[in-house]
Amino acid sequence: MYAVIENGGKQYKVAEGDVVRVEKLAAEVGAEVSFNVVMVAGDEGVKLGKDVENAKVTGTVQAQDKFKKIIVFKYKAKKNERKKQGHRQPFTAVKIEKISL
Question: Please, what sign has the CA dihedral across residues 88, 93, 99, 101?
Fold first, then answer.
């Protein structure tokens, strides 16, 4: 069984036991969180829309961290204008505990 959840304007395909890195959540390590469910697929088929209104995906926060640094380099040709920046996007690692309908 797997589900598609929504968080931070993005959708993630998850199954029980998966560790997924989502947009930063305001939750402590070890706290339990739940997500909006978009779709659930299992033995009884695919369920969408009204069928998944009561569906619930819960998980436990494993870590609050940042991704690897990326370099953002902007320049304007022939103008000697250059700007170099680094960026590390924060994320929350969540272990999916239960998918229920």
Answer: negative
